Amino acid sequence: MFAVDPVNHHIDEQIQHKINQKTKPLGALGLLETLAKQIAQVQFAKQFNGRHKLSIKEPAMLVFAGDHGIAAHGVSIAPSEVTKQMVANFASGGAAINVFCRQMGLNLEVIDCGMLTPSDHPSVTNHRLGSGTQAIHQKPAMSLLSVKDGFSYANEVVQRHYDSGCNLIALGEMGIGNTSSAAAVMAALLKLDIKDCVGRGTGINDEAFALKTELLTVAMNLHRNNLNDPVNVLACLGGFEIVQMTGAILAAAEKRMLVVIDGFIATAAALAAVALHPDARGYLIFAHQSDEQGHIKMLQALDAQPILSLGLRLGEGTGAALALPIIQSAVNFYNDMASFENAGVSNVV
User: Fold this and answer.
1) CA 279 – CA 273 distance, rounded (Å)
2) Mean pLDDT estimate for the chain
3) Helices H, strands E: what count in the chain?
4) In what order do the strands lie in the sheet with 60-66?
5) Cβ proximity of 192 and 297 under 8 Å
6) Rounded to an integer, what distance in angstroms lies between the CA atom of residue 218 and that of residue 216?
7) CB atoms within 10 A of CB 151
8) Are the C-beta atoms of residues 215 and 272 closer than 8 Å to each other?
9) Strands 168-174, 258-261: pairing kind
């Protein structure tokens, strides 16, 4: 469904030379230099021109919401009704993600991918695939057709933002029980034991954590023979919001847009997207390392260096929003910082 081209590595030497000629010691801006080079690889699609500038235009935060059947079985501190309640909070502007989007100048769109009951707020996009997934320890989360439909919905959202001039999307999510789904997707795609992937989500106690691990072990055994490709993994173990985030990543990469990945759930979607189209990896910027215990393993598998490490475990796209000023700083130093020659400074390279 998606055709993803690799980022432009043919210009790596020229980009690195330009960065090295800025008035600083080699590598002195650390991860900002890596980010600037990556953004150049994405935005200079055909050739290098030293006068061309990097840009972040009309950045958008897409928050995908969905409910999970497994949430009814004691794996979370909150009931599934909280998903819709938080989406209403997003719609009214009162959540952390609203605060940070206003601060960072991010255009926020909230998408109902399949909560138990639909949102009645006019600002929430209706891309429902159902009223919550099936409990993954009992049956597949959804059909293969639902995965396909989810990809189509995601493409529609990304296309709309692209047409408005957006060249960077950030991904967030909301869904009680979605750390269970993300851990299962992670285990299936990375061929890991579920015990190495499951975490405490929003802060469950020892008893609930043991139950969560047990149910996810059952789920992995139940679907073991059908986890032979990423689409089947999403159908068996995924969430409606994880499916649409996966589609959004691929749709954005197809359009040569940057994609800022939030925490554990969004990174599970990134794993699935890269498994489907490995070249999508070049378009992904990883905002932060969350406190969910499996997240570092996912980041390592994707060879990803996260920008922030703040102990976050909220989701909603909050880490991705907080990373945006640092991404913009990488753009700005590349565009506006003087070279040794232009500044009349002795080259220390």
Assistant:
1) 9
2) 95
3) 13, 6
4) 124-126, 107-114, 60-66, 168-174, 258-261, 284-286
5) yes
6) 5
7) 22
8) no
9) parallel
Residue found by looking up tokens 């409606």 in the block: 240
Q: What is the pLDDT of residue 297?
A: 96
Give the pLDDT confidence score for residue 291 in this predicted structure: 86
Half-sphere exposure of 343 (CA within 13 A, CB side): 13
Residue 64 belongs to what H/E stretch?
A: strand 60-66
Question: So what's the pLDDT on residue 349?
Answer: 60
**Token match 């989007």: residue?**
101
% the chain with pLDDT above 70: 99
Is 241 part of the annotated catalytic residue set? no
β-sheet bridge partners, residue 168: 258
d(CA 155, CA 152): 5
Question: Could you report the per-residue pLDDT of 237-255, keeping only the tens digit for each?
Answer: 999 999 999 999 999 999 9
- In this predicted structure, what is the pLDDT of residue 60? 98
Distance from C-alpha of 215 to C-alpha of 340, rounded to nearest angstrom: 60
- Average pLDDT score over residue span 313-325: 96
Catalytic residue among 109, 173, 254, 316: 316
Domain positions in the chain are: 9-55+331-343, 60-327
Total Cβ atoms within 10 A of residue 64: 36
Distances, alpha carbon 79 to alpha carbons 126, 202, 258, in Å: 22, 12, 34
pLDDT in tens, 173-191: 999 999 999 999 999 999 9
Supply 12's token pair. 């790596």
Task: Write out pLDDT tens, residues 192-205.
Answer: 999 999 988 878 89
Section 59-84 average pLDDT: 95
pLDDT band at 146 (very low <50, low <70, confident <90, very high): very high
Under CATH, which number does the domain 9-55+331-343 receive? 1.10.1610.10
Residue 101 — left, alpha, or beta (φ > 0 → left; ψ -120 to 50 → alpha)?
Answer: alpha
CATH topology of domain 60-327: Rossmann fold (3.40.50)
| Integer Cα distance of 260 and 227 in angstroms | 27
